[in-house]
Design goal:
The protein has 114 residues and is mainly alpha-helical. The protein has 5 helices and no strands. The longest helix has 32 residues.
Amino acid sequence: MDDMVIVVIIVNLIYFVIWISINKLRNSNITFIKEWDNGNEFYESLSENDKRIYWKQDTHILNRVLLIFFPFMNLALFLIDNKNYYWIICLVIGLILSCILGVLMSIKLRKRLE
């Protein structure tokens, strides 16, 4: 059990480092990051004020997706210790739920800015 606690702490640290790195990149002034975004065509069609609003709200959506997935990831890490496959089900539910909510929030944002 002690080894599992260390694994959970290490995975959580890696997750938070990735999360912080994503936010640092998205909040930087590096233009090619915005070009890699899958909504670049929509982004380019907006006015300057709407671009700023879109980018800020899109970053909030990404943070919510990562936040929704976080408890499922932790639960899956604790379920790995059991000899069943509930941890896989937990990860799949977390991935599907966070992706669906992220897509729905992104569609809502686009409709609001159109």
